[in-house]
Design a protein that fits this description.
Blueprint (H helix, E strand, L loop, with lengths): L3 H6 L13 H15 L1 H5 L3 E6 L2 E6 L14 E5 L2 E7 L5 E5 L5 E7 L2 E10 L2 E7 L4 E9 L1 E8 L2 E7 L2 E9 L5 E20 L4 E21 L1 H13 L3 H6 L1 H11 L5 E15 L2 E15 L5 E10 L2 E3 L14 E11 L2 H10 L10 H13 L3 E10 L4 E9 L6 E9 L1 H11 L4 H16 L1 E2 L5 E7 L5 E3 L2 E4 L15
Antiparallel strand pairs: 1-2, 2-4, 3-6, 4-5, 5-8, 6-7, 7-10, 8-9, 9-12, 10-11, 11-13, 12-13, 13-14, 14-15, 15-16, 16-17, 16-18, 17-19, 19-20, 20-21, 21-22, 22-24, 23-24, 24-25, 25-26
């Protein structure tokens, strides 16, 4: 629901200084907005613009959306009326104030499946300055005293509750066009209760997740917001298949203008004092974070993914006595995809699609894109990553590529405290047959390792294009057999 707001706010793309707040001004504002939501939204009373003192008021009655469609029982919903107040400022910008988000529920019934989603926001409000020259908010803040999201489905029920929270957003003009933005959202007292159900056996698996706080940070450069809104306006103006086909040359031009969508975007999702309670045990961590960063659609794009966990604890009656000595207390994983050439395939798809054909993109084009991808595949890179506890640490880094679909890998694994880990297992071997069977394999692994001056063990792993595998220059797997050519058939 909150995703609707940036689309609706675009009505203020005209400078505000010269406008008088009156009935004709409201009509003009509504005309601008209709380009992105359609005139029908105004005709049906879904959207209404009116003068309200020194500002304009935009009201949204989402419950009237049902009037756009034939009567049906698949989707039912109820959303509270939502409004924004827009005041023109002397410098040509707009002061926007309103509730943080619409509230309500949606129910989707497609027998035998029935799903329900409900959002409730307590004391939610937002305030910001929209800059027409930027086409986005130059600054905005929001807050709430509580937020609840409930989902129900045949596979179970989930209820997520958040305490007090704030959000801040800033936007500036990007040097290369588009918008540079930064946002930060912080919420306290996160609690999610979930009950997973197996519809076949009616088995329940309850789970509860808690955190003292939850934060979401996002930053981006060169986001092509204006170009994406132009595509939205095209979709509204060409709202049937025949119009889209007739004007697909314009659509191609608009999509190409929106590339690369953004220059770079990154985000981090973090928890503090996180705990997950399940029937099989409790997982705790002092800090937990997931980070994602991605380039736009370009020839040498990159995608980064990271996970960091600290102060890990696991408590379970199902863990064997020797397990706690081996459970990591710290995890730091950093995975990347590089050499992502998405621009050339995207441009070929856009330039060659024809909506009057089936398929819209000729098979020869898709085959050529696939062949180019296989000839120049992306590279998977694992930057220095580690899993550690008080006694042991395993660190790994390397990269892998798939020329012609076959893996080629170079990786280095280093271990500190390897003998301590083995000793913990040796103490359990007399009473645990599975552990006893594992020890010879660990001895062999250690035998392949190279002792470093600091006492660590190192394994340099090399997987070659012919399928052979080497560890510290010792072959552990020979090359794959070379297929014999098919014998020539003698004509009869």
């Amino acid at each position: 629901m909150r995703a609707l707001l940036p689309i609706l706010i675009v009505a203020f793309a005209a400078p505000a200084a010269a406008q008088t707040v009156d009935g004709p001004g409201a009509a003009q504002l509504g005309e601008t907005l209709s380009r992105y939501v359609g005139k029908t939204a105004f005709d049906k009373g879904i959207v209404k613009v009116s003068a309200d003192g020194d500002a304009y008021r935009i009201d949204f009655d989402f419950n009237r959306i049902a009037s756009l469609f034939p009567p049906q029982d698949i989707v039912n919903y109820e959303v509270k009326p939502y409004g924004l107040r827009a005041k023109p400022l002397a410098d040509g910008t707009w002061q926007i104030d309103g509730a943080l988000s619409p509230e309500g529920w949606v129910e989707i019934s497609q027998p035998p499946v029935k799903q329900r989603f409900q959002l409730t926001v307590s004391d939610g409000k937002m305030s910001g300055v929209f800059d027409p020259a930027l086409g986005a908010f130059s600054s905005a803040t929001g807050s709430h005293s509580g937020l609840k999201l409930v989902t129900e489905a045949p596979t179970g029920r989930s209820e997520a509750n958040y305490g007090a929270g704030t959000v801040t957003v800033t936007g500036t003009k990007s040097a290369n066009g588009g918008v540079d933005f930064a946002s930060k959202q912080v919420m306290a007292d996160f609690v999610q209760s979930q009950n997973v159900v197996d519809p076949g056996s009616n088995t329940n698996f309850p789970m509860e997740m808690k955190a003292a706080s939850l934060s979401v940070d996002a930053n981006g450069t060169g986001y092509k917001w204006g170009s994406l809104l132009d595509i939205l306006a095209f979709a509204v103006a060409n709202n049937d298949e025949a119009k889209v086909k007739a004007n697909q040359a314009e659509l191609k031009s608009l999509i190409l203008a929106a590339l690369p969508l953004w220059e770079h975007i990154d985000g981090t999702y973090g928890f503090s004092d996180l705990s997950v309670t399940t029937p099989v045990g409790i997982f705790r961590t002092g800090q937990a974070g997931v980070s994602v960063a991605m380039d736009g659609i370009r020839q040498d794009g990159r995608l980064d993914y990271g996970i960091k966990l600290s102060e890990l604890e696991v408590a379970s009656l199902f863990l064997p006595a020797w397990a706690p000595a081996l459970i990591p207390t710290e995890v730091d994983l950093n995975l990347s995809g590089t050499n992502l050439n998405l621009e050339e395939p995207a441009r070929k798809m856009i330039e060659n699609f024809d909506l009057s054909l089936d398929p819209p993109v000729p098979v020869a084009v898709t085959d050529a894109i696939e062949a180019e991808f296989m000839a120049n595949p992306p590279r998977i890179v694992l930057a220095k990553s580690k899993v550690a506890n008080a006694d042991t640490e395993f660190a790994v880094e390397g990269e892998m590529v798939f020329p012609d679909g076959k893996p080629v890998m170079n990786a280095t694994i280093e271990a500190a405290g390897f003998d301590k880990a083995v000793a913990a297992l040796q103490s359990a071997a007399p009473t645990d047959q599975q552990v006893a069977e594992l020890l010879p394999a660990l001895a062999m692994v250690k035998g392949f390792g190279k002792a470093l001056p600091d006492g660590r063990l190192q394994w340099a792993v090399n997987v070659r294009a012919d399928g052979s595998v080497f560890v510290n220059d010792t072959m552990v797997k020979p090359a794959d057999p070379v297929p014999m050519p098919e014998p020539l058939q003698t004509p009869q």
